[in-house]
Design goal:
alpha+beta, 1 helix, 35% strand, rod-shaped
Length: 254
């Protein structure tokens, strides 16, 4: 079974059996000195995966680089005649000096007291050293995703959800991406918070006024009823006195 072999990534047009021509080789003695310790095979031959990781990228790591495999028998590591060179599918790297800036996706405006969600995303090329995304905000409700966009390109997303307050209006919200090697980049925007109208300055005086008028009305009704009863009592007393005087007057005439 041919599931093992000698693997190498070498400069295009160079023979992989010579030291200095390989950025990676199963035989570490054949790796070019300035690539030693910086390259590692991530893929497995049995899975038809020849993915190579290069760390601490330098400006001369642009290639082109080609993959080659020389298969051996699983028992005894005996060499075979099965050798494959992918000279027509070499890889060339485009070097950039500054890392990609994060992309911010957010609604146009936030509403005071209602949930508000902002998405920060950044592209990268190394799933074993994903960028870290941080916010200049409280991050109690934070979700982070990593996904493959296409071969050799991944995306990291940070989804921030919070409840904006009135004091957050015109505040800057910043997302910073930290990359392997220490480089950073950031993006920001100014948060616009739509404040909920407060009618307390109208409602409270109106309620106080209505309450005062209602209490005054109840007091007036109570006093009117009280005085009405008092007047009736006085009228009854006057009638009784008049009756007594009338009786006394009639007796005197006899």
């Amino acid at each position: 079974t041919l599931t093992k072999g000698s693997l190498s990534w070498h400069y295009k047009g160079k023979t992989p059996d010579t030291k200095g021509n390989n950025i990676f080789h199963s035989d570490a003695t054949l790796i070019k000195d300035n690539f030693k310790g910086r390259t590692k095979m991530l893929g497995e031959l049995g899975q038809n995966n020849c993915t190579l990781e290069i760390t601490q990228i330098r400006n001369h790591d642009n290639g082109p680089f080609c993959f080659r495999v020389e298969l051996v028998k699983e028992e005894g590591n005996e060499p075979t005649k099965d050798m494959f060179s992918f000279d027509k599918d070499c890889v060339e790297l485009n070097m950039i000096t500054d890392p990609a800036e994060p992309t911010l996706t957010q609604p146009m405006a936030a509403t005071q007291g209602e949930p508000y969600t902002v998405i920060c995303s950044v592209m990268h090329t190394c799933p074993t050293h994903v960028p870290t995304l941080t916010w200049n905000w409280k991050t109690e409700r934070l979700i982070v995703y990593h996904r493959l966009i296409r071969s050799g390109n991944w995306e990291t997303q940070s989804i921030l959800t919070f409840i904006p307050e009135e004091k957050d209006d015109n505040r800057e919200l910043t997302c910073t991406a930290g990359f392997n090697g220490g480089q950073t980049s950031s993006s920001k925007f100014t948060l616009n918070v739509k404040c909920i109208e407060s009618y307390n300055h109208i409602i409270i005086p109106a309620v106080v006024g209505i309450g005062t008028a209602l209490l005054f009305g109840i007091f007036c009704i109570f006093m009117a009823k009280k005085y009405k009863n008092r007047i009736a009592e006085l009228q009854n007393q006057e009638g009784t006195m008049w009756n007594r005087l009338s009786r006394l007057s009639r007796r005197g005439r006899r």
